[in-house]
Amino acid sequence: MTDPSASAAARRPGEQALTALGLAAPDPDPADASPHSFPGGGRWRTEIPSCEGPEALAVVLKESSRLDVPIHRISQGSGVWMLTDAEITEMVEATAERDIELCLFTGPRGTWDIGGSTRTDSGGAGLRARGHAAVAGCVEDAVRASELGVKCLLVADEGVLWTLHRARAAGLLPAETTLKLSALVGPVNPASYAVYERLGADSINVPSDLTPDHLTEIRQVSAAPMDMYIEAPDDLGGYVRMYEVAELIRRGAPLYLKFGLSKAPGIYPYGHHLRELTLATAKERVRRGRLALDLLARHGADGDMAPLGTRLPGTLNRFEISS
Predict the structure, then answer these.
(1) Which residues pair with 227 in a beta bridge?
(2) Does the bond joining 307 to the residue before it have cis omega, within 30 degrees of 0?
(3) Digit-coded pLDDT (tens) for 298-314
(4) What HEC string does 112-178 produce?
(5) Quick one: which of 5, 164, 173, 275 is 20 to 30 A from 148 by CA?
(6) Which pLDDT score is estimated for 90?
(7) Single pTM value for the model
(8) pLDDT value of position 116
């Protein structure tokens, strides 16, 4: 297992100048550090989100090569149902060639349904799948995507998550399928984080406004991989936390660093009418990743990246599936 104390020795932003001015911060507490890492080694992986089709994927892959941005996972947000079989196959083949995990969203979800509660001030039932038909649609997407070679599925409903986990255990989905919980329903406390793990999540997206202390609390109860936007889209808060990346890794490992983009219009569900915006923002997400990785390098905190091509979460805690 990787030594979490190594990241504690990294230089923190502005540390030398502030120390000289008598404004040094307290030393990091070793007890705050996550003791966990990815199977096979490493404490962080990378993800480029909102890659909505083959053309955007090609832009991301080209830009990642140009800027030398390592990528472990690429995810899409519009949904399996918004892609043709040919488009999915093209994305599967392109990511397989680079040994990158491809994650597609299962749909439909509540915000695109006819129910009005999601448009009230309370937000209603949010992104959850409304009724049996919506659950069935998510399962249909999951089966179709897996038959086309997709190995990671994005989920925004706890019932759908448990259903797909049971399907995986029953052999209705390939055993190597991983289930990723969406940022749109991410847990905000250790108890709920542990529940999503037990429902079948293999990586769990937490809201980007969680504090380092919140991450430490979660790591006291769960080793399930965590996903976190280093820069969040505006509809998820628009937070930009680049200077905190080293500390987020120290507290939250094993952690996927998600390079989102603030101050950009939404593109879900994607169609060709949004082509230019989608390609431009895809390219900029990779650049944002380069900026975050440069910060890690300048602070001596860029070690402990998980090997490229790794994707599995390790052994996790699950609820028992009754027959």
Answers:
(1) 205, 256
(2) no
(3) 999 999 999 999 999 99
(4) HCCCCHHHCCCCCCCCCCCHHHHHHHHHHHHHHHHHCCCCEEEECCHHHHHHHHHHHHCCCCCCCCE
(5) 275
(6) 98
(7) 0.91
(8) 57
